[in-house]
Predict the structure.
Amino acid sequence: MFFMADINVRDLYRKEWINCYSTEEFENEYTYTGNDLGVTFSGEEIYVKCWSPYADAVSVRVFLTGDVKTDTKIQDTIAMTKGEKGVWSAALSREIFENQYYDYEVRFGKNIVTACDPYAKAVGVNGNRAMFLDLSVTNPDGWDEDRNPNQDMPWTDMLIYELHTRDFSADESSGIKNKGKFLGLVETGTEYTQGEITVKTGLDHLKELGVTHLHLLPFCDYGSLDEALEYDKELYNWGYDPLNYNVPEGTYSTDPFHGEVRVRELKETIQKLHNNGISVVMDVVYNHTYNEEYCYNKLVPAYFHRISEDMVNSDGSACGNDTATERNMVSKFIADSVEYWAREYHIDGFRFDLMGLIDVNTMNEIRRRLDNVRPNIIIYGEGWKLDTGITKDVDLATQANTCKMDRVAMFSDNIRDAIKGSVFKEDEKGYISGEIKDVEELKLAVMGAPEWAQTPAQVVNYTSCHDNYTLFDKIALCNPDISFEERVKQNKLAIGIVMLSQGIAFMHAGEEILRTKVDSNGEYVSDSVRSCDCVNAIKWSDLVKPEYMDVYQYYIGLVKLRKDTELLRFPCPKCVKSAVSFYETDDVHVICYKIEKEGKSVIVAFNGDDISHEIQIKEGLDGYQYYVAEGKASATPLKSVASGTSSLSICAKEIIVLKK
Ligand code: CA
């Protein structure tokens, strides 16, 4: 008699519940600390548990498949029993139910809703039903021996490459078979040939470039693409719309219908990356959910989001809702989820989307949990200060609060905007385009010391990422009248500043081959979140053109130089301060500094101007050799400085690096 069509989650919201969720009374009564929410296998039983303190009844409904469209027959309905702290549980026979699918039917008064399990670890197509899957069957051979290849690497040694899974392989010129799939990230021997020239693509390209960490845009199950459809070049999404936080996205697997396939394929992919010396960073989006109909909101109405007494969702994320991370059971859910990815999938780092919406206590709990899994898992995020309706008096994980968190790094918009101009004003120029207003900011940035940071290991230096325009397009937009060659020089200057700065080095995939995002009207695309493959895919065929190959070689040279030069990668602020000194230059466009320690020294010079300049080096340059000059970068010396020289001549938009 309770069976009704699914209702809108809003119909379940009660003002009196919303008003008490963040009170001490509620949290004392209902905070559950067990680690067994969701499904656990034990002997012949499958245990199912969910947290739903205000429900009047909860049942598990079982189905043969995970597809709600084609399979509506309920095989079984098992009533759950309410226990302590608002947790409902049931025990099911493993023999009968293993590998079948389930959801929860939850009753509040006369309202009934169905919900996926927020703790689901495997789901059917489109993530509506969870699966009773014993995860050990998804482990590839050798999984127990799988390790982070850069486990002991100091954070300031890391070189992070930010990529969308699909962009890597979608273009025909990738030569990759598993287009748009996890497995496409790890095909080897792929290349593109035109005439006499052959270039490496895919994983071989990544290895050639020399990055240490592959940061993948969100790959937990997201909501905006229909997984049941055939691969469609027009249907694309970045994936910042999480649906099931503990499950891989189905469109990246070769079979989204069978819950175990995506789990196994992602593990295989991570294992192969590890075997090729590359660590994996996961972009995680706990600050908001795909929409309000999020499954946890059906189990505990309106609990998961920051919502006002008038039932208006806080929207600091600009995605329609903000997660109430400060509530105990949300905080626990996030920490459980991050820990799960680190343990089950061997993830080596986490990038927190809009981390400034997450509270400091939750970030510190995540840090503590990850330290218990493995040492040295990197955490970084967007510490932007955003307006959000926080429900408790707690601090948020913004740049200003870096001092309240241990080993949580943040993106430096200071260096990003100083280099190329504000990302919010498309024609605003930065240092590389001759603008001098942020030169002092840039000097702090190259020392890994924007005002909010205590140490360079907290600072992620970058000039572009998936957001906004690509670096090369931004340069074009604010310099419409200059030639391609001149734009290339600015692009090289931009990445040079990032690679030579103290801190963590980060780059956007394709930056090294002048990535551009242009739509069918010839317009540059900012925020290509829903653009087609033709806009987003990396065009490997560009690499055969000499001017693109030249830029790529410059990136490779800088990466090698950074790896070879300890003085560019100090882990602590004291080392930077005692080693770095700036030279006076006769023009504000010219920045020049020396890094010196224990008899070794490096001199770095940037010229953002359109004309050449001379830099006086009083103590002389005897014994120095050039590693970056005249548009080339190398880990081995390009040439020696003539003896008796005490000045450096630096051309327009040029970088010079000397080492002794
Ligand atoms: Ca999905």
In short: The chain has a mean pLDDT of 97. The two ends are 83 Å apart (CA to CA). Residues 419 and 494 are 6 Å apart (CA to CA).
